[in-house]
Amino acid sequence: MDLLDRPVPAGGGAAPPPRLLLFLGDVTEPGFAKTAFGLRHWAAEWCVGECSLPGASVTTGLPRLSPAEAAARGAEALLIGIASPGGGIPLVWRATLAEALEAGLDLISGMHVRLADVPELQAAATRLGRRLIDVRTPPSDLAVGSGVKRAGKRLLTVGTDCALGKKYTALAIARALVTRGVDATFRATGQTGIMIAGAGIPIDAVVSDFVAGAAEQLSPAAAPDHWDVIEGQGSLFHPAYAAVSLGLLHGSQPDLFVVCHDPTRVGVLGHPERALPTIEQVIGQTVALGRLTNPAIRCVGVSLNTGALSAGEADAVIAATAARLSLPAADPIRGGAAFDRLVEACLQ
Predict the structure, then answer these.
(1) Residue 301 three-state SS
(2) CA dist., res. 48 & res. 69, Å (int)
(3) Which of 30, 218, 242, 284 is surrounded by the most beta carbons within 10 Å?
(4) Helix count (H) and strand count (E) of the chain?
């Protein structure tokens, strides 16, 4: 699926990649700009530049452009690159979003609030003939979870917190498996993953009774040697998002899981007064709860987000974590032998 839902060229083949201006709003916490960072990392060829409001301190390193400047460079749409708590579209953003429509850009959003439900944006889009594209829209035909074991193999990324690498880890492992000749599919469960993969189900937009069923539909029965690598959401220890994480865990029925952790983070994102759980706590809780739908669930390794560390510091933390837990540990972005060991462990 093309992100802008454009037709395949008359001569056949894939549609050209979308050309996007990433909107960072007034964000000062990098964790809340994970959509922009995800697109910048995994789909850099789509990104023309970035646009932000005064006071924003987060940047993807792309050229800073106004909507008109981006349109002049070939941008087709402004994409809201933010995943903030609650998923609203604040009043302070709306003038810039309207400016983008006036400049000839469509709007793409993964927020909980739909673009079409913002009156001034809907009116401007109708007047200008622009599109309002909402990615966070779950299917309408979801069923409740059955808990019935499905054929195929599944790996789920889980975390000590939100916004610390579950999507990156799942994408990296899926890509590494395919490179090794394994039949594997990345299954997106959040706005950014869906934008990158062109398919998926936004799990946190699903009515709670249907979350497990949505995960079952996302990762259906497959050939015995097929791997679904499922993007995790939230954390079982996050006071706001644990319910989403639990439903996804039960519906995914993972055979294996990888714990994602940021060794420099002390408090839970958005709740700094709440201490981050240990990797050991996450392993124990995930196994205890995951056994409801897959009694054979087990942890296969740890993914560490070491972006704030030097290469030497990262190597030391990775080695110490692997030794402490007797599990492979790696930073999938740094790659190397440690990541190769993590991937190989998935296949054993």
Answers:
(1) strand
(2) 10
(3) 218
(4) 11, 13
